[in-house]
Amino acid sequence: DTAVSQTPKYLVTQMGNDKSIKCEQNLGHDTMYWYKQDSKKFLKIMFSYNNKELIINETVPNRFSPKSPDKAHLNLHINSLELGDSAVYFCASSQRASSYEQYFGPGTRLTVT
Amino acid sequence: GENVEQHPSTLSVQEGDSAVIKCTYSDSASNYFPWYKQELGKRPQLIIDIRSNVGEKKDQRIAVTLNKTAKHFSLHITETQPEDSAVYFCAATFGNEKLTFGTGTRLTIIP
């Protein structure tokens, strides 16, 4: 009965590679998010989708491309990985945008070597 | 611009004492203020939230107060227990679409 799930949980890869992280929610929520949490624990929003439509696109390098095939899924593809991309990436969902509780996935720890 | 400041960055209290974490926000139109708790290696989870039409909300040992005039809100934890040790994040909505998080407070409860 997992609410928000992400795969993989850990991802170790070399600089220059391309990788994807997948997220799924079974809560029937309309809105999904990607956050990046760096080593100092800062939580920064990257993207948000509402009913498959992009509504938030923060200042993120265009090497990061989100895709929402349906409102239950939000994937994150990263091209040409760099050392600075190492972080924990959290997917989250909420009933509607912003003023509702956000349910976070377990996180994906990305390490770029 | 959108900004949420959180203090202190670290806090240690004796078990049984109270802990207070404070946040200020920049946008007077912000109307939703949640608090998330993140235990080591785990995901952030909502512990309490407050909307702009309310000044205070309490849930057992946890309370949040909001001062809209001063644009600040605080988390109060009473009778602290070891399991309260975690990183706590405040957050505020901006533009009705984006939730901006504070920089986090690492709370340590000393047995």
Quick recap:
The complex is a heterodimer of chains A (113) and B (111). Chain A is mostly beta strands and 113 residues long. Helix content of chain A is 0%, strand content 56%.
What is the number of E strands of chain A? Answer: 11
Low-confidence stretches of chain A are none
SS-based structural class of chain B? Answer: mainly beta
Count of helical regions of chain A = 0
Q: What is the share of helical residues of chain A?
A: under 10%
Radius of gyration of chain B: 13 Å
Q: What gross morphology of chain A would you assign?
A: globular
Q: Largest beta sheet of chain B, briefly?
A: 6 strands, mixed
pLDDT below 50 for ≥5 consecutive residues: which ranges of chain B? none
The amount of beta strand of chain B, in percent, is: over 45%
Task: Tell me the Rg of chain A in angstroms.
Answer: 13 Å
Oligomer: heterodimer
Percent helix of chain B, as a range, is under 10%
> Taking all residues together, what is the mean pLDDT of chain A?
93
Strand content of chain A: over 45%
Q: Order of helices and strands of chain A, N to C?
A: EEEEEEEEEEE
- Could you say which structural class the secondary elements and strand pairing of chain A correspond to? mainly beta
> What order do the helices and strands of chain B follow?
EEEEEEEEEEE
Summarize the structure in words.
The complex is a heterodimer of chains A (113) and B (111). Chain A is mainly beta and 113 residues long. Helices cover 0% and strands 56% of the residues of chain A. The mean pLDDT of chain A is 93. Chain B is an all-beta fold and 111 residues long. Chain B is built from no helices and eleven strands. In chain B, the strands form two sheets. In chain B, strands 2, 4, 5, 9, 10 and 11 form a six-stranded mixed sheet that branches. Chain B has a five-stranded antiparallel sheet with strand order 1-3-8-7-6, with no helix packed on it. Chain B is globular.
